[in-house]
Design brief:
Immunoglobulin-like, 21% helix, 146 residues, 2 domains, 3 helices, 4-stranded mixed β-sheet
């Protein structure tokens, strides 16, 4: 009898788990209700309350990550760059061509320590020099495509 009860409990638990993982539009009911009952597939344009999400600005969310032993990086206009360092607040960053790559020093941002970074402003090439707190540095040739 215990075995039957255990099997029934396991089956009920499995059914609950499967129901919670059922496939659908990928948007939960709270999101659908907030969006007026409709969902928008990723890749389509969605507008509302001054926010527009498209394929182009979705791609801008993740920066191009550059590590210290890297000597070259390739990005597109509008891309963000993140230069990995041990001590973001002690490092400095410079661009020899700020019209192509505008640099942003490491910083505290809402309780989060951010690595030095940059923004790809226009097509071209810039030499970005990152100097660590211990005085060691690395130069990355960043090529930005239109």
């Amino acid at each position: 009898m215990r075995r039957i009860v255990a099997l029934a409990a396991a089956a009920a638990l499995a059914a609950t788990f499967v129901a919670g993982c059922s496939s659908g539009s990928g948007t939960d009911s709270a999101d659908q209700a907030a969006a007026g009952g409709e969902s928008t597939p990723v890749g389509d344009t969605m507008e509302g309350d001054g926010i527009e999400i498209t394929d182009e600005n979705l791609a801008m969310l993740a920066p191009i990550v550059v590590v210290p032993d890297q000597t070259e990086a390739l990005a597109n206009v509008g891309d963000g760059l993140e230069f990995m360092v041990d001590d973001p607040l002690g490092a400095t960053i410079e661009s020899d061509n700020p019209a192509v790559v505008e640099v942003i020093p490491g910083r505290e941002d809402g309780g989060i320590t951010r690595n030095p970074g940059g923004t790809a402003l226009s097509a071209g090439t810039a030499n970005v020099t990152v100097t660590n707190a211990d005085g060691t540095s690395f130069v990355v040739v960043v090529t930005i495509e239109g």
